[in-house]
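== Item description ==
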Amino acid sequence: MRPHLARLMVTVAVLVPAVPARADDVSVCRKAFQGSVPFRKGIDACTGVLQRDPRAAFAYAGRAHSRDYGVRRPFTAARAAEIRRAFDAALADYTKAIAFDPSNSQYLVARGLLRQTRFEAFKDAAELRHAIADFSRGIELWPREAPVFLGHRARIYEALGERRKAIADFRAILAIDPKDYPSRDALKRLGARP
């Protein structure tokens, strides 16, 4: 082989690094967001996809969901630091997924729900305020999906003791879907008329 061709091949090999990836990484990663694969497998597959395409929003969401799901196994004080790190990583991944694909409402719902879970784990009220902001943004951006966002936001308001806001959100759901029985039950629980 000619010396200049050998140098060229070495240069090309250095410029284009080989990224190890399994053929089914994309498929497994998409299933990870749905929660239909073991969490470690989901994290590994989504990380493989992100090594090839760092702008793959679905991979950030799949990895975030896998991280979130993975820490829900025995929740103990001894695991608090590990759980906080996993939640932080999942939150960062959901935020990247939203940045790369702002048209996907599921990512915003998932991030809001993760924030609710972080509140339940660590009693950090700021998490609930951030979750309310996520759900409020979802109502603005996707009015057709408003009942989903309203329902989550109403439950947070109820948990915070903000009865009037919770009632307003549950009533807004009923204005869209008069047959929404969970909202009717919530209004009864809050002592309000539908």
User: Anything to note?
Assistant: The longest helix spans residues 80-100.
